[in-house]
């Protein structure tokens, strides 16, 4: 529907009808206006499957939803680093939504993994904003190609479940821009999601639903968002100020209470009716966009979609360790499968994204009829209770086999929406099982089912570690294909696995005090912290092994020197030097050689996944613009590049850089400078104009005529000392050390001249 027709329709509505459209009709539908033929639109939870509830509705998945297909969760899909694959997943989800009459699927979720403890990390993509934004953009592109909307969430700085409806995320401006806003920015700007979901929490003391700077100034004004903003379910705190700030749709229904507040505010002159009209227009624009593009021939083919879920899972499983080339296993050898998750895999997280899967394939389902695979339960339903009988059975079967594969990880009781983890450990019974099996079976492999990093006290005792993440309902088939070499693993970690929780940069401040959570680590989130500190980690960001090998060569830059208004083209050749076809994730990082601001040692600025046959070489190309070299400058409230050298680093992970070159970038923006009597000589001498004016003054005797040629003086006052003292002395210091040769009036005149 055109904007003119929408406005004409809104003009026919009563004040009460317009207010009613700004909140849900129930848990999953927008309001309709039958008198004017305005339809309702259904929304449904995602983002890795369709959780459509037909009967009793709830937000946390307590009541049953329709049978659907569970794809890998965000923790896994991000590990694929494959935009095209995730776009395809989005297309499948969009088709399912069309078949079920769902206008908007609630996802993707792009919140940064600030700490491994966040209970909802399984749903989120990465500790890196570029990975989060790019993978989210790929999913949005796929879903919306089917004329179904997405709802990128949870905007903004929503990084814990504890007190999520009342806590205030205290984040400085630069950190917000470089880390937390950046995760949303690229996806919103490039893919234009139909809706954005605002979070529960406060941002620096203001609820997200009431945060005009975030919802209007940045989201719409800077990024060009043109859909509607919807609240997270129950995130509305003060309906009229929320509406003014840019929150259009409240979900779920408020029983008319908040609608009445809007009506009263308009009647009493506290709210301009044009603000209400604007929100209604945004909502109806999306309602009719879906309504007018319904695909009546769309089919929800669950079995076909299950196969695509398997394809996605194959690229979300990360090979972390493969000592002595133990993997892939032989299909003819005697193998012991151990652990409850071999039969009943943990393949998704709990809460609002929980899918009622139409079928689930466990690893044991695939191999149970092979004849050479045995199974032992290993641990029981009481997830953290060691069962000696089960362990004894597992040890016996492992000892008789050529290799043992232990399926372990985190149970639902350890990580879920609604609460945060209290530690980074796995259940004690599983750790004990792994240790006992590894003691009798040197060829032990651990397959992990978890949504976020875990401590691995047994890592040195096993030869293989496979991170399956929460890879959807087809995870068992995908794991078996990787274990036995039918599929070459190609996923990489979208987050760092530290050795222990205490290593994490947010450890001391994570849950905050009361309702105040300070993000004191600033921009040093994830690998930005670990790599800058040169801290040992269990597995670094971007890490993942393959059954083949890759060589990097011929790194080329399009120029040795550019302006910050130019673009730099970077190309590198990648060759499959092994004997098996495989995919490699090529990662490009940028490092500022010398910066006047505190910056991470390197930051990811590009990645691409390339598919190579044995012996094949392909050229991977990246294009870098200003943002690749910039930091957020709080003085000018904009992105800024400092003139200087930048290292272009290309490699296999943040810790495995294969090639590097250097480019010089010249800034075209001169930062405003204002000197005072407190400005140091060192800072003044960095400015060309100031240097010319001050050079005569620098020749004054600043040590009061003290003899410096005696041995005592020379030993007490070195040239290095004098140089440092001058560098860090404020301009006002001249009054104390010039023996009256310079007056305050002269200094003030100097400042006037410098600041002119």
UniProtKB/TrEMBL annotation:
GO MF annotation list: beta-glucosidase activity
EC id: 3.2.1.21
UniProt superkingdom: Bacteria
GO biological process: carbohydrate metabolic process
Keyword annotations from UniProtKB, A to Z: Carbohydrate metabolism, Glycosidase, Hydrolase
Pfam families, A to Z: Fn3-like, Glyco_hydro_3, Glyco_hydro_3_C
Cross-referenced SUPFAM superfamilies: (Trans)glycosidases, Beta-D-glucan exohydrolase, C-terminal domain
Family listed: Belongs to the glycosyl hydrolase 3 family.
Highest classification ranks of the organism: Bacteria, Bacillati, Bacillota, Clostridia, Lachnospirales
InterPro entries cross-referenced by the UniProt entry: Cellulose_deg_GH3 (IPR050288), Fn3-like (IPR026891), GH (IPR017853), Glyco_hydro_3_AS (IPR019800), Glyco_hydro_3_C (IPR002772), Glyco_hydro_3_C_sf (IPR036881), Glyco_hydro_3_N (IPR001764), Glyco_hydro_3_N_sf (IPR036962)
Name of the protein this chain belongs to: Glycosyl hydrolase
Domain annotation Fibronectin type III-like: ranges: 584-654
